[in-house]
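Quick question, first post here. What does this chain look like in 3D?
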Amino acid sequence: MATFLYARVSTTEQSLDHQRTQAEKAGFTFDHVIADHGVSGVSVLMKDRPEGRRLFDMLRNGDVLVVRWIDRLGRNYADVTDTIREFIRRGVIIRTIINNMTFDGSTTDPVQMAVRDSLIAFMAATAQAQAEATKEAQRAAIAQLKAKDDGSYKGRKPSYTREQFSQVLDMDGNGASVSEIAKTTRLSRQTVYRIKEDPGAAEKSLAVWGA
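> Answer (accepted):
Ran it through. Tokens below.
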């Protein structure tokens, strides 16, 4: 049996170090730490994430999966509920850092199973609703800036220089790992992933900001 920490890193407040520190303060220790960087929790399913696929391959009966909250497993209602039920069927025990909740297949009582599944469904629905509300607020703010039509809206300022941008592409072309690139360029793994996945958009951002 092994204990896994799975983290989805999407903002500075939800960094891998932050999630790991929270877990350790809650008394957890880990055999494996797995993290996905810079992936959308709404549009990208758990099995389609690079490290999410790895987690599915590694988990075995009796293993413990620790997550900060179930929104780290995704913010798509159907995906989250399907993922948790699949892990439970495999005999995996799911623990949350927040509120120290446990989801497993230890009970065979139908009423208790219904309560467990209802709670999972409620939490998954809440996660998706929060994600959609955040996206809508962002879209409204962007639309308001664009409506000014004065050229003031440039999008998010790139967190990398043109030299770093070129270095990421060069190292990636030579087969370097994301960790190696991040260490060499002193960029976050999330930024490296963003440049790798859409270099055209990354280049355009530099041009818009005159970098």
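Strands lie at 3-9, 32-37, 64-67, 93-96, 102-103.
The helical segments are 16-25, 50-58, 77-89, 110-147, 162-173, 178-185, 189-197, 199-208.
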